[in-house]
Amino acid sequence: MRKPGHRTAPCNTQDAVGRVPGSHLLLSAVTSVIFLPPLIFLPPLVQPIFAGNAGLPAVVGATTDQAQGDSKDGPHPDIVRWKESVPGCTFSRDEDGKYSYGLWMGDIGVVVAVDARELQLLRHRIEPVLAVLLTLHYRGNANLDATANGITLEFVKHFEVVQPALDPDSYSQKIQADADAMDDETRRAIRKHPEEKQVRIAGLQEYEKSANELIEFLNSKSLRTVHLDRATPDASGWVFFSTDNKWIGSWKPQEEFVLHVRLGEKTFEFPFKLPPAPGELLLRKRP
């Protein structure tokens, strides 16, 4: 059974804002300080933007024959698909706890990094969003425009639902509106049950703290529209996808995704699994 209007991922390759009180700087409290014990892992989504995947992929120069998508009707020259062991495609398990997938085609390089614990972390955020760190490289003599509007994530094991990247500004406004609604609801509850005032206020303060940190992170670390050229050849930022969808059920022991990144006239596709191997656990190294 498929959801009406879904799009199927291309076939495999050939052989080759914030008004919330109590401002904070990072998103760490959303996932580690408030919800997760901070003894084993570093806070998620708080790594330096270029940590673990700032460099160019080790192998460059993949040809269209080596890394392009094809279908029953023949090759799609506008689709470039990551495939393990193909020239121009790289994979690494990084010390900062991320899986990194790199792909080069001509003058364009894309590195996708996903936290090894992402499916566990998103359960503890105030919003059920999945985060991906994207790094773009351009080595051409012209220019290249990149925007989050051209990025989608396919949930392969959930009826192949495709979710667009969240607009960071609109998403921040939603978080602020939810925080305002939480404040109003708390005030009403206290009027009806004054004996619960202390508990209600504590819960509100915790929620506002998490909301403010998420807004701060969205404003400072999200991937924005960028213009790449010889003067500015690189860009990096986080991209978020909502998992709040009736077609997306409970998580499987191993999930499969396809990230679609539209750049110029080509779409870069990154099929990946979490974890890459069933039962695999990737730990961050302490600094």
Fold topology:
Elements lengths: L27 H6 L30 H4 E4 L2 E8 L7 E5 L4 E8 L2 E8 L2 H4 L7 E10 L5 E3 L4 E5 L5 E4 L3 H25 L4 H25 L4 E3 L5 E9 L12 E9 L2 E9 L13
Parallel strand pairs: 2-13
Antiparallel strand pairs: 1-2, 3-4, 4-5, 5-6, 6-11, 7-10, 8-9, 8-12, 12-13
Helix pairs in contact: 4-5
Give a brief description.
The chain is an alpha+beta fold and 287 residues long.
Number of domains: 1
Largest sheet entry: 6 strands, mixed
> Hey, roughly how much beta strand do the residues contain?
25-35%
List segments where confidence is low: pLDDT < 50 over at least 5 consecutive residues. 1-72
Question: Mean pLDDT, as a whole number?
Answer: 78
Distance between the termini: 47 Å
Give the C-alpha Rg.
Answer: 20 Å
Number of helices: 5
The topology string of helices and strands comes to: HHEEEEEHEEEEHHEEEE
Strands ordered across the widest β-sheet: 1-2-13-12-8-9
Overall structural class, as computed from helix and strand content, comes to alpha+beta
